[in-house]
Each structure stands twice: as C-alpha cells, then as structure tokens.
C-alpha cells in the first residue's frame, strides 16, 4: 500500500476551504457588482454624478481573486496526493496570497485605514495552503 505524501491531508483540507471561500467570494462579488450598477443608476436618476471606476475595479478584482481562489482550491484537492505537483500548488497559493495583499493595498488607496487583522486573516488560508504544498513536496 502506497502512503500519502506528508502534507496531503493538510493540502486537501486547505483546498476544500479555498473552494468554499472562492465560491462564496464569487457570489458576493457578483452581488457587489450589481450593487455598484444600482448605485450608479440611482445616482443618475437623482442627477448626482458618481465616479464608479474604483468601485467597479474593486469588485472586478474581488471577483478575479475569488475565481483564482476557487481554482487554487480545486488544484490543491486534485493534486494533494501528487508530490510532483507540489510546486504548482505553491505557485497558485502564492498568487492567492499576493491578491490578498493587493486587495488590502487597494483598500488603503481608496481611503480606508490599514487593517492588520484583515490582512492577517486574508493571508492565513493561502499561507497554510503553501505550507501544505511544501510538506507535500518533502
């Protein structure tokens, strides 16, 4: 009987959580995009001009991030027992982590305060995913 790689369960659990988070993120991002469109329409009806560019860009970035998180989770679950695919999993985990940091930077650029807790929470799952991939490679 062939034994599972060291980090396979870790990678699989993180992958499942990323699939759930990605799916929820896609739904929430689509709702946010509809909200921005409704806000622009309401503002136009009242004669108010709203620059929706940053809001729309934020929603689209969130949607792309959620899709990438979903894909990353699927890749992690699919390849959790394949140590030769650990590097691929690490790369996808790093991409999700970078997008999390980019989202925080965009939030600060739009006028919000820097939130360490939000950044930390956004990085927990990608970092754990990367750790699982590293253990899987060993």
Write structural notes for this entry:
The structure is a single chain. The protein has 138 residues and is mostly helical. It has a domain of 94 residues. Helix content is 80%, strand content 0%. The chain is elongated, with a radius of gyration of 18 Å. The protein starts with 7 loop residues before the first helix and ends with a helix. The relative contact order is 0.21. The mean pLDDT is 86.
What is the tally of beta strands?
0
Structural class: mainly alpha
- Provide the β-strand percentage band: under 5%
Rounded to the nearest angstrom, the distance between the terminal CA atoms is 19 Å
Can you summarize the main beta sheet?
Answer: none
Note the overall shape: elongated
Estimated helix fraction: over 70%
Average pLDDT over all residues:
86
Individual helix count:
4
Residue runs with pLDDT of under 50 for 5 or more positions: none
Cα-atom radius of gyration: 18 Å
What letter string, H or E per element, gives the SSE order? HHHH
């Amino acid at each position: 009987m062939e034994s599972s790689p060291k980090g396979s369960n870790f990678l699989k659990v993180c992958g499942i959580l990323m699939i759930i988070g990605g799916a929820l993120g896609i739904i929430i991002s689509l709702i946010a995009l509809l909200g921005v469109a409704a806000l622009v329409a309401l503002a136009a009806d009242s004669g108010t001009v709203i620059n929706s560019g940053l809001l729309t860009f934020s929603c689209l970035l969130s949607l792309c991030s959620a899709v990438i998180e979903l894909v990353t989770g699927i890749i992690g679950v699919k390849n959790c027992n394949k140590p030769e695919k650990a590097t691929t999993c690490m790369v996808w985990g790093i991409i999700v982590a970078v997008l999390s940091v980019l989202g925080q930077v965009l939030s600060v650029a739009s006028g919000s305060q820097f939130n360490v807790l939000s950044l930390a929470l956004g990085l927990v799952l990608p970092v754990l995913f990367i750790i699982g991939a590293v253990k899987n490679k060993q």
